Structures are given as structure tokens and as C-alpha cells.
Automatic annotation (TrEMBL):
<dbReference type="InterPro" id="IPR015854">
    <property type="entry name" value="ABC_transpr_LolD-like"/>
</dbReference>
<dbReference type="GO" id="GO:0003677">
    <property type="term" value="F:DNA binding"/>
</dbReference>
<dbReference type="InterPro" id="IPR007159">
    <property type="entry name" value="SpoVT-AbrB_dom"/>
</dbReference>
<feature type="domain" description="ABC transporter">
    <location>
        <begin position="27"/>
        <end position="268"/>
    </location>
</feature>
<dbReference type="GO" id="GO:0016887">
    <property type="term" value="F:ATP hydrolysis activity"/>
</dbReference>
<dbReference type="InterPro" id="IPR017871">
    <property type="entry name" value="ABC_transporter-like_CS"/>
</dbReference>
<keyword id="KW-0547">Nucleotide-binding</keyword>
<dbReference type="InterPro" id="IPR003593">
    <property type="entry name" value="AAA+_ATPase"/>
</dbReference>
<dbReference type="GO" id="GO:0005886">
    <property type="term" value="C:plasma membrane"/>
</dbReference>
<protein>
    <submittedName>
        <fullName>ABC transporter ATP-binding protein</fullName>
    </submittedName>
</protein>
<feature type="region of interest" description="Disordered">
    <location>
        <begin position="304"/>
        <end position="349"/>
    </location>
</feature>
<keyword id="KW-0813">Transport</keyword>
<dbReference type="InterPro" id="IPR003439">
    <property type="entry name" value="ABC_transporter-like_ATP-bd"/>
</dbReference>
<keyword id="KW-0238">DNA-binding</keyword>
<dbReference type="Pfam" id="PF00005">
    <property type="entry name" value="ABC_tran"/>
</dbReference>
<dbReference type="GO" id="GO:0022857">
    <property type="term" value="F:transmembrane transporter activity"/>
</dbReference>
<keyword id="KW-0067">ATP-binding</keyword>
Length: 349
């Protein structure tokens, strides 16, 4: 198969996926594919990634190095265009924007914080000047921008750094100033790619708390990418990416007991993608020796997954008394799961 054919097929598949997936969400990634081609070698950095982010959320995206996190953020920030799929942020369709719209989008809708502090702030300007700079470009009067710069630095807890240049601040202070710079023109969404990647644990904590404050006090939707799994303590929702797809999520909720005491409960979820695929954690697969074919059974309230082993003779247990460690008999009546290839999403794969 030639490269052009495979790209065409991917686009065709993405086009067929119409419907209302993600209506109402602020950020919609629907079956995103990004293929890099260098020297004849194809790298699939995003392999059909689905992600929805609601307005006002603070979401962390975690994953091993090379899992596609930066590729995703480059797409969402309008720097890169995916190979196939659908991606929308607010009213902006990032697949079909013109170059001019792309500039508008980057100026008005989104702000960014990068891992390298030098990429975020100008070395010869003070913090206050750095934060005021994007506002000056946007034509805001001097008084108004000085006032807003001071307010933003205060919100991030670095008001005391207003008159310092980057070289006079720690890495964590610089990154918090960088967050203020990114917020200067009041974007709806803030993207941060490994903002704590060059910081120690204690300083990382301050930067992540800074993002949380921004989310809570200014209402900015925040998407932060990190390889640091400890981030989930700072956010309500952590999405894990594996091999260019969202694979699992941890959601933290505050639980109030009957006596009024509050505790935070973290629950882990697997992500069912639009084609109905779900990734089973490696430890589950290893424990039950799940490889290749597995049996699925539809129960009244859930779906069970069984290793593909010969069904033991039914013996003394009657059909009604199937023990918990025995799969359902594979009779026609129990084949509750449609045969492969018969679901509309999977047709043609
Ligand atoms: N410009 C590029 N050209 C070729 N391959 C790339 C390029 N950028 C990223 N990749 C590849 O895409 C995959 C995902 O990369 P990336 O999104 O940077 O991952 P992460 O940020 O999670 O470490 C990796 O295999 C990486 O080598
Ligand atoms: Mg990266």
C-alpha cells in the first residue's frame, strides 16, 4: 500500500464518522491521527485519539515519553495540523482554519506555557514587562495593561517578582510568570506542555498549584501535559495517553460523609473509544493470561472478559448456577456479543 492510499483511507474513515460526538464540549478531539514521515519512515504519533474537555475543567494529560502528548498539544494550540480526524476548540475548527484564522485563534482563544522557560519569557524584560508585552501587541492602553500585569502576577503568587528579570528568579518563579504571560490576553484555554519538566518536586508543586488557582479564580480551562504521574493529586481529572490514544482516566471527587467530613476519592476508569475499543491494563492481562482471543459476555449490568480456554464440563453446576470463575457456555443463545465485522463502526476495518 502506498503512503497516499493509506492517508486517503484514513481521511475517508474520519469523514464517515459524523454525528454529534462532543457537542457542548469546549475541546473535541475525534479519532485524531497524526502521522509523521521522515526519510520514508512513518511514525503514527496519534492513532485515533478521542478526548473531550468541558469548559472550566482542569485536565492533566500523562503518558510515557513518545506517547504523543506534545503532538496533541501542538495540534490543539494550532501549531500543527493532524493527518485525519476532527478537532475543534470552542467555535474554531482546527482542521479547516485559514492561516489568518490560525493567527487569530492563537492570539485570542488560547495561551501556552512550554517546558523551556526561555521560550516563554523574554530575558531582558522584567516580569511585569513580560506580562504587559502581549497586551501592548493587542493594543491595550498602558494603564490598563500595567494594572492587569500586576493582578496576574499576584494571582500566581509572584507579585514580588514584578521588577525582576528572568535571571533573578528561580525556575519555578519563571514558570509562574510564564503562566501570567500566557494569560495576558484572557484566553479561554491555557495549554501547558511539561511546564514542570525542568523543576524539582517542591517547585513543581508551586507551578501546578498556580495552574489550579488560575482555573479556579479566573475560570480558565487548563490542559497540562506532564510525564509526572504525581500531577493527579493537583487536578480533578487525569487522562493517560498510551501509543497515541487515550487509555485511562483518573477522576477525583470530593466525598462528603454523613457526619460532614470530606475526603477525596480517586477512581480509575478505562476509556471506551468511539469504535468501542477499550485497553485492558497489562497486570489484568498477565494475571489471567489474556492474549489474542478473549470471550466477552453481556451481563445484566456489565460486560465480562474471559480467557479463551476450553469450557470445563458443566458437571454438577446447573446452567443457572454458573460459578464466578467459569465463562458462559458458548452456545448461540449466549453469543450476546455481535460477531466481529458486524458493528457499523467496525465495518470496513
Ligand atoms: N517532527 C517529527 N518528525 C518525526 N517524528 C516525530 C516528530 N515529532 C514527534 N515525532 C514522534 O512522534 C511520537 C510522539 O512524539 P511526542 O508527541 O513528542 O511524544 P511525547 O510528547 O509524549 O513525548 C514519537 O515517536 C516521536 O518520535
Ligand atoms: Mg513531549
Amino acid at each position: 500500500m502506498t503512503v497516499t492510499e493509506s492517508l486517503g483511507a484514513l481521511e475517508e474513515r474520519a469523514r464517515r464518522r459524523t454525528g454529534t460526538f462532543g457537542d457542548g464540549a469546549l475541546i473535541v478531539c475525534d479519532s485524531l491521527v497524526r502521522i509523521y514521515q521522515s526519510e520514508g519512515v512513518e511514525v503514527q504519533a496519534l492513532q485515533g485519539l478521542d478526548l473531550l474537555v468541558e469548559s472550566g475543567e482542569l485536565v492533566a494529560i500523562v503518558g510515557a515519553s513518545g506517547s504523543g502528548k506534545s503532538t496533541l498539544l501542538a495540534v490543539l494550540s494550532g501549531l500543527d495540523v493532524p493527518t485525519a480526524g476532527r478537532v475543534r476548540v470552542g467555535p474554531w475548527d482546527l482542521m479547516s482554519m485559514t492561516a489568518r484564522q490560525r493567527v487569530d485563534y492563537r492570539r485570542s482563544m488560547v495561551g501556552f506555557v512550554w517546558q523551556q522557560t526561555a521560550r516563554n519569557i523574554v530575558p531582558y524584560l522584567t516580569s511585569a514587562e513580560n506580562v504587559a508585552f502581549p497586551m501592548a501587541l493587542a493594543g491595550m492602553p498602558r494603564r490598563a495593561r500595567e494594572k492587569r500585569a500586576a493582578e496576574l502576577l499576584d494571582v500566581l503568587g509572584v507579585g514580588y517578582c514584578a521588577d525582576r528579570r528572568p535571571a533573578q528568579m528561580s525556575g519555578g518563579e519563571q514558570q509562574r510568570v510564564a503562566i501570567a504571560v500566557a494569560l495576558a490576553n484572557s484566553p479561554e484555554v491555557l495549554f501547558a506542555d511539561e511546564p514542570t519538566g525542568e523543576l524539582d518536586t517542591a517547585t513543581s508543586h508551586d507551578v501546578l498549584e498556580g495552574l489550579r488557582t488560575v482555573n479556579r479564580e479566573l475560570g480558565t480551562t487548563v490542559v497540562v501535559v506532564t510525564h509526572d504521574a504525581g500531577v493527579s493529586e493537583h487536578v480533578q481529572r487525569t487522562v493517560a495517553i498510551r501509543d497515541g490514544r487515550t487509555s485511562s482516566e483518573v477522576v477525583r471527587r470530593t466525598h462528603t460523609a454523613e457526619d460532614g467530613t470530606e475526603s477525596v476519592v480517586a477512581e480509575e476508569y478505562a476509556v471506551l473509544d468511539r469504535a468501542g475499543r477499550v485497553q485492558l491494563p497489562r497486570e489484568y492481562r498477565q494475571t489471567l493470561d489474556l492474549v489474542g482471543r478473549v470471550r466477552l459476555a453481556l451481563e445484566s449490568s456489565h460486560v465480562s472478559v474471559w480467557p479463551d480456554r476450553p469450557t470445563p464440563p458443566r458437571g454438577p453446576h446447573g446452567p443457572q448456577t454458573r460459578p464466578h470463575d467459569e465463562p458462559p457456555a458458548h452456545t448461540g443463545r449466549h453469543a450476546a456479543v455481535p460477531a466481529p465485522g458486524t458493528t457499523d463502526e467496525e465495518a470496513g476495518r
